[in-house]
UniProtKB/TrEMBL annotation:
Record organism: Cinchona calisaya
Organism superkingdom: Eukaryota
InterPro entries assigned: AMPK_gamma/SDS23_families, CBS_dom, CBS_dom_sf
Pfam families: CBS
Signal peptide: none
Repeat is among the record's keywords: yes
Keywords per UniProt: CBS domain, Repeat
PROSITE patterns: CBS
Name of the featured protein: CBS domain-containing protein
Start and end residues of each CBS domain: 54-119, 267-327, 353-411
Positions of transmembrane segments: none
Keyword Zinc-finger: no
Length: 427
């Protein structure tokens, strides 16, 4: 095995998996392409071999927890989603009856923004659900959440302080809607990710394809005997596994290639979902919801220079720490980034978010990108030119798409029995 000189063997549980691939790689038929070889290798390894997630990440949420409790729990454990247990399920329930879904940080954001959008012309607005709310805030929130498109409030300008007032989130987090809405009450709505789990005997290839082509953000692995989730495989864990495989022959034959050689980034610059620095930060979260993306770059006004990134998880700073923007009269994307940085410098000095925006160049290798993603604990990296102009974005899904492919008819009836996704839902 070609392991980097001086590296202990094995270096980690993740490296053990990489060495399994190496053993399998060496015995594959020589006429197979590298991708076909890797497909065969990953198909031969069960997901039960994937290292267990830290206990802090295998968090279960009771269906009678409030939205406020869920947001706090996800933020405290630095996770983006968690399975929800039906508190009314009998003790002998099967795993599929014990869990009612996976609730995501992004889903709660969707729920909150959806409530704000009901203000215009809907009989049940977010403020109808709030005790003691200030009705004068309604137009401001509707305008911010709808991108100023509502004819009823077209007099509000995006840069108007009232249009992006932080009072909405302050009111929301003290409201009965936020405190008392149970996570079980919103099950089955578009705010939920579909509940699709793997069994321990399923393969690594299945897991990789679900994370990439089928856009799952994390994958529960169930123990049929225990009737419960045994492990949760996240995008971050897969990135870390790939990073730990550096030095192995199969990895280097693929990871040593430049992004441009692999056809990365996949997306044209003109198709990148972005927000300009002087737009309301709510516009960034709205775009994430509409486009089904986990983050957007912040671009300088009047150009393509990337100055920062806003992730779906950053909504926590509005929901958990509204004081971060009380000094700001308007929450533009740029001001939001500045406020979050100041908050982190005071409260979380070790946060990776305090580092500058993480970027790469087209002539960087895929290995360079994987190492950056893992060391920075992020899920996406932006491709820029020599002037810092935005040229693309690379995510774990893009990386996996260059590692393996879905064989014809591979999933067969795998998805049978999974409830159809609502029209507005994205995996």
């Amino acid at each position: 095995m070609m392991i980097e000189e001086g590296s202990p063997t094995p270096r980690s549980p993740e490296a053990k998996v990489g060495m399994q691939v190496e053993d399998l790689w060496d015995v594959q038929e020589p006429q197979l392409s590298p991708t076909e070889k890797l497909n065969a290798c990953f198909e031969s390894i069960p997901v039960s071999d994937f290292p267990p997630a830290p206990s802090s990440q295998v968090i279960e949420i009771n269906s009678d927890s409030s939205l406020a409790e869920v947001v706090k729990l996800l933020a405290e454990h630095k996770i983006l989603s968690a399975p929800v247990v039906d508190v009314e399920a009998p003790d002998d329930a099967s795993w599929i009856d014990r869990y009612i879904g996976i609730v995501e940080f992004a889903g709660i954001v969707v729920s909150i923004l959806h409530q704000s959008e009901k203000i215009d012309g809907s009989p049940a607005s977010a403020f109808d659900l709030m005790n003691g709310s200030d009705d004068s805030m309604g137009p401001a929130v509707a305008a911010a959440a709808n991108g100023m498109s509502s004819p009823r409030y077209r007099s509000l300008h995006p840069e108007s302080p009232s249009a992006t007032s932080g009072n909405f989130f302050e009111t929301l987090t003290s409201s009965d809607f936020y405190k008392n809405t149970k996570v079980g009450d919103i099950s089955g709505s578009f705010r939920w990710a579909p509940f699709l789990a793997l069994q321990k005997s399923n393969s690594f290839l299945t897991m990789l394809l679900l994370l990439s082509k089928y856009r799952m953000k994390s994958i529960p692995v169930v123990d049929l005997g225990e009737k419960k989730i045994d492990n949760i495989i996240t995008q971050s864990a897969v990135i870390h596994m790939l990073d730990e495989c550096a030095g192995l022959h199969w990895f280097e034959s693929w990871g040593s290639k430049k992004l441009s050689e692999l056809g990365l980034p996949l997306m044209k610059p003109s198709h990148i979902v972005k927000v300009y620095e002087d737009e309301p930060v709510l516009q960034a979260f709205k775009l994430m919801r509409q486009k089904g993306v986990g983050g957007v770059p912040v671009v300088a006004s009047g150009g393509r220079k990337a100055i920062g990134n806003i992730s779906i998880r950053d909504i926590q700073f509005l929901l958990l720490a509204p004081e971060i923007y009380k000094e700001f009269r308007s929450i533009t994307a740029k001001n939001f980034l500045t406020a979050v940085r100041s908050y982190l410098e005071e409260h979380q000095k070790d946060s990776p978010l305090l580092r500058n925006m993480v970027t790469c160049r087209r002539d960087d290798t895929l290995k360079d990108v994987i190492m950056k993603l893992d060391s920075m604990k992020i899920h996406r990296i932006y491709v820029v030119d020599d002037l810092g102009n935005l040229g693309g974005v690379i995510t774990l899904r893009d990386i996996i798409s260059k590692l393996v492919h879905e064989p014809r008819g591979y999933f067969g009836d795998f998805f049978d029995g999974v409830l159809p996704l609502p029209a507005n839902s994205r995996v």
